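Lab channel / #folding
Pinned by the channel admin:
"Please post every new chain as: sequence first, then the structure tokens as a reply. Keep commentary short and put observations after the output so the thread stays searchable."

First post following the new format, from NK:
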Amino acid sequence: MKIVTAAQMSALEHAAEAQGVSLDGLMENAGRAVAEAARRELGPQVIGARVLALIGPGNNGADGLVAARHLARWGAAVTAYIITRRPDPDPKQELAQRAGVNIQWAGQDPGLPLLERRLGQCRLVIDAVLGTGRSRPLEGVVKDILGRLDARRRSPSRPFLLALDLPTGLNADTGQMDPACPAADLTLALGFPKVGLLAFPGAAKVGRLQVADIGLPPGLPGEQEILLEMLTDGWASGALPARPLNSHKGAYGHVLAVAGSRNYVGAAVLASQAAARTGAGLVTLAAPERVDAIAAAKLTEVIHLPLPEDSDGRIHADAAASLQGQARRFNARLVGCGLGVSEGTARFVENLLLDRQGETLPTVVDADGLNNLARLPNWRQRITRPLVLTPHPGEMSTLTGLPTPHIQADRVKVARQWAAQWNAVLVLKGAHTVVADPGGLVRVSPFANPGLASGGTGDVLTGVIAALLAQGLGPFDAACLGVHLHGLAGELVRRELGDTGTLATDLVERLPLVIHRLRCPG
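Reply from TO:
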């Protein structure tokens, strides 16, 4: 699913109009979708439910009036509170009034006592004040009303807040936001999600993000040139590797996990388990001898390939030669989880990954694999195989020399730039993980889950991506699908346990379930 700027959305709407789709029809579809989302939240008690629609001056407000009209027809007690002057005549307002919507005007409510009363009575508020066309600071009556809404939302009887397209005051293109921007429970993006809904700090105000089909025809002129997409369950289910009935373990690939050190045994275990749980036919763990002895107690199904270690319990620099000789046994490799960082590990990574002409084994490099790469001169020019790099922002800073705040300020731009420069698939981890292809296409995860901010969850992601590579997916699709499966597993854990105290093993255990649900929805 495309992620668009405000200008791109406007261009697509006008392209649809040129194909015979009326803008009024799009508006009607949008308002109906908002009303249906509100009805889902209200549940079976929609008849008589008190709803307040905050209506602004433009198309966002018109969509809100359409939504108010449908909710009134379904039996809700709806008030449309008009904040600023609207067009005269206003057909959407007239139709809403005819359907039984109670129309009130901020200009006739000095001191806003009517607004306060409605806020205190309603179960649901629709934020239809300002949409993608507004970027100036909020002021005057709009700022005052949003302040009253915020105060009511902090009370024990807080109403549910549904934002129409985006919360008022959130910049559709950047994710920057006005201090008065309200925090929605649900944002219903119309047609396509906007860039700002998936960019912080504004993404923190979005709540749950859903996308409504408003009737835009597929394949509009200019749509294919939009190289930013959001990962979806529909895409992920189609990308899953097939599992024929007459298959065998050799059909699903063999992953080599090069991981672990004395201080990070768990990283090797988690990455190996995740690869197995994601469907790899075979997984071999190559770890320092003493690490392997400990890991063997936990990894019953994994093949073990103990490697010589140095005095600090890390893989010895000379161990790369033995692995190179066995490369043809494997279909994919992961390198770096818990490897440790030293002169010896840097030399090991150099010998394993760089200047290996003719070797095509797809490889995921994570954590200390990245930190060791960053110590090597000209490593970017010495890559000879398909690589998936999976840095978090701190590791990205180490690799690029850019300050972490600069990276976080425009994650899509940074990921796209460096994926092209390194000729590698880049997974920039974090809330709304960004996956960039060297060719310029970028996909963004819909998930932002604080429960994943714990040790070992990145090792799980690495194992998932390696397993998908081993099953035949290309590096970009393997990275995208791995990020989505990882995010789905995190959401499942959050629904069951909350977002505090999530363990990486919780994700591993749920990977088969989220894959099953994608294959067999419902």
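NK: The mean pLDDT is 96.
TO: also worth noting, The chain has two domains: 6-226, 236-519.
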